[in-house]
Amino acid sequence: MKLLNRTLIAAAVSTGMVGAASAKDLVVVSWGGAYTASQQNAYHAPYMAANPDINIVNDDSANGAVAKLRAMQEAGNVTWDLVDMVASDAILSCDEGLAIEIDHNAVLAPAPDGTPALEDFGDLVVSPCFIPQIVYSTTFGYRKDKVGDTPPTSINDVFDLAKYPGKRSLEKKPINNLEWALLADGVPADKIYEVLGTEEGVDQALAKLDTIKDEVIWWEKGAQTPQLLADGEVVMGSTYNGRLFSVIEEEKQPVGMMWDWQVYDLDGWVVPAGGKNEADVLEYLKFATDTQRLADQAKYISYGPARASSAPMVGKHESLGIDMAPHMPTAPDNASNTLLYNYEFWADNVDDLTEVFQAWLAN
Amino acid sequence: MSDAPLVTVDGTPLKVSLGRAKRKAKIRALLLVAPLFLFILLTFFIPIMSMLLRSVDNENVAYTLPNTADLLAEWDVDSGDLPDEAVFAALAADFKAATVSKEDDINATKVGTRFNYEKSGFRSMFRKTNKIFEKGGVEPPYKEAFIKINKRWGDADYWRVMQREMRGKTDSYYLAAVDSGYTDDGERAMNKPGKRIYLKLYGRTLGISLLITCICLLLAYPVAYLLSILKSRTSNLLMILVLLPFWTSLLVRTSAWIALLQKEGVINSVLVSIGVIDDANRLLMIHNATGTIIAMVHVLLPFMILPLYSVMKTIPPSYMRAARSLGATPFTAFTKVYMPNTVPGIGAGAILVFILAIGYYITPALVGGQSGTLISNEIARHLETSLNWGLAAALGALLLVAVFALYLVYDKIVGIDNMKLG
To answer: Is A232 on the interface with B (CB under 8 A)?
Structure first.
């Protein structure tokens, strides 16, 4: 018995020492599921292989991360080292002082041809705290077996209950829905935010949405529309293009893509202010956001790399073996009509218009 | 003999000695509850109080813009003019100080986000201005310089909001929580009908929670009765069935309801295949209030069954037999004898279910659609997404007040002592 105890203590002490002497943990917060897996394969695993002193720990709590980050900062104990956020949340974090500002050209790797990082990312650097990673889009999927021989091809079809009867699923927030309503109501794309800036414009958009309100299932989580489509609950619905890709190509459901007026949005990294391993994280970011790594991620998930220099390097899907370039939201065939999420407009108006939108929903 | 005080063997008066013993017992009791008391104080009471204080807290604005706050107080809002050059100069000094400050609390863009809750447009206005000051700032005349950065600096309506919200304590979160706010003239007023939402959601939350409580009571009463009269071997087995849902994750249970209730779901498909309804008129049982009610009744049912069961178990069967032998009909025996004895269980179950129902937000978010979402969904949204914690705190505080009011009504009608949890 005594001997056993002694061995146990020895074992405990030695593992403790090994733990202390080995890698330093970097806590990277992301969305979990297929997305974190793509980052693990494209960024984390090769980085850890090259840097044995770093151990990257995945934390799947990116949902509501800004709120958690603020709570951590107020408590004076920021335990995260790097957080994956959509661009609008990155802007909010930056405004709230929750993230550090990045000198992109100094911190990040230039493109292989020497183009500085800031130029390679172009206007996708929408906030000084934000390092873009992928371009994704919110677009429509439809049930092939429920639309006959004439699949929907335009945003007008979403609002056409006579031609495509049945439920639609839309996200339970004003962003994207108000824009689509105005486009379907005949407002030219370059006038949308001018119109939405006025009360009459908002009323016009809501009136257009009124025409389909009874036939809409409102979703809050990205997984809902793919599920509703797979179950045949809705005839068409909006969601992120990567989710639709996996429904169509991986799960082989009878679902088609409708790219008309897809809305581009960005997702990327934010370094929390007050994090304990800032220098190590910046070192990691230099690797994880270089041209090759961003192109590699597209092997695992159908989101477009944020660097211009990565686009030509997008190859085939790792396990399905299909060519990924035509599935990118930025592929020319998919991108005839597109909007880019208007960060400035929504940063100013999201509080107000969400209230109006929720009131419209409740009435 | 009778006048002399009673003493113990060692001569101390009995009263003193008794008091000593009692005090010891009291201290022991206090020490025993102290860990729980401290735990509740630290992890529940203090965090909730500090959260509630946010609903009025507005100190950060004047702390970040001290010079502007001082000078702007003297500006006459109704003059129709913009504040004078001195105010703009003070603002420039504040922005300059904020960009070089190392303090977390001094952050101009954060103040912009705060003002944006009052009026749309402040966020980009403060962010752009801050950027200019980070790059070195502006030269006088400051008024023109600011208006050149963003034309909203030349709009008196924005200045009016700034002047008002320089105060250290604000009522604007509470106003927003009851669908009100300040007009452009600075008067408090109800929002336009198209922007009223929270009062409606409070009403809906209370209504749906009451309905859920009633349905739970109706469903749980016979089950608890059955459990209480069966032999313990059978009733233990049935009790496991009652508790089974507790062992399954809430999300799994909610998803299972989606699979059952949706239009192409199990129930609709069975009804269509046996010809009760036709294919075109499938029932809408989810993504609306019905879905919220069904899923929440299922989740909360055990909280009603358990207190009822524990009370019913203690009612001797001889009571009913006595009533019957004295000539009462089964119905009278039930209403006059059995039911009144179960009131403590009904009270406990109803309070548990109602309080839990009021705070639910995951289930309504997934199955509630537009008619089945509750006030807690909005509170969660302001906490997690919009980051407007002041408004979330105000909404939460009002919900707390509503629950306390209902508690007092309950105490008046049923009596809170008349409640038994087990």
So the answer is: yes
